[in-house]
Amino acid sequence: MARSNSSLRPMLYLAELFNGVMVTMKEKRSILYLTDLYFEAKGRKYYEEDLFLTSRLRSDFEILICHPCDSCKFENAVDLVIFRNAGPVMNYKTYFDAFKSRINSTNILSYNSMQGRADMNGKDYLIEMTREGYPVIPTIEKPEDLYRLPHTDQYMVKLKNGADSIGMHVVSAAQLLNIDLDGSIVQPFVDFVYEVSFYFIDEDFQYALYAPDKSKRWDLALYEPTSQDLGFARKFIDWNALSHGIQRVDACRTQDGNLLLVELEDLNPYLSIDLLSNELREKFVVNFRDSLSKTIEARK
Q1: Residue 140's CB: how many other CB atoms inside 10 A?
Q2: pLDDT at 91 over 70
Q3: Closest C-alpha among 41, 258, 8, 5 to residue 165
Q4: Can you tell me the distance from the alpha carbon of 140 to that of 35, in angstroms, rounded to the nearest whole number?
Q5: Residue 166 — very low, low, confident or very high, per pLDDT cuts 50/70/90?
Q6: For residues 183 and 237, what is the distance between their CA atoms, to the nearest angstrom?
Q7: CA-only gyration radius of the chain, Å
Q8: Tell me: the pLDDT tens digits for 241-284?
Q9: pTM exceeds 0.70, yes or no
């Protein structure tokens, strides 16, 4: 028996609605969000930060989440690849090096831009900045350059490609002369007052957090920077000249009141957004979303 027009109307309506949803979906820009939801770090819940951010981006973007080591097969199917909380890349260096090479040699668009000069390439930039007179913790890589460092009883030895204090250890001056420094940097042990981090989206300052108790690096509180503080932080944002992305300028306040750069995280800085007020967190999300949209639109 043939169906009446009235019996077809609900089906036609559902088809029209479905088609409308498909059109809307196609109008959305697509994002491949790279993260490791199982990565564990002391004092931080990386997965919570990424689940929160992706949940807030879903209304504006189609989101696909995967680990960086699995990203190759999806990169050409999206408008933008976001590299976020995926842990130290030294743990999967071969994959990361291949990923970075693909980004910089093809039309794949990434966020952050993979043309940063700071931590995404290791810590050689701290040696360069020391030579150029930037306000950084003095850094060398060879024992014969020890004269460049202020005299101290203890030194910090860090891996050039290290992160999250992996491979970091304290040595005496005597020990420093008898260890293999290949692949490492050396800094004087600094008796600082506290550490403070300045967070930027593109070139715009967002917020600052500091650790009042220097023995608890990730027990953070909101910090109100002075104009001098922001001038210090912007010096490194300007130096890096990253076209787009999130950067975190980590510094320490020395006993004489000055700030010294600890590191410039320009790859996948942890944001600690769970510590922000609702208003400040919402402002960050809006600015992050707008920056993603501008990055995609600029490619058109």
Answers
A1: 21
A2: yes
A3: 41
A4: 32
A5: low
A6: 26
A7: 23
A8: 899 999 999 999 999 999 999 999 999 999 999 999 999 999 99
A9: yes
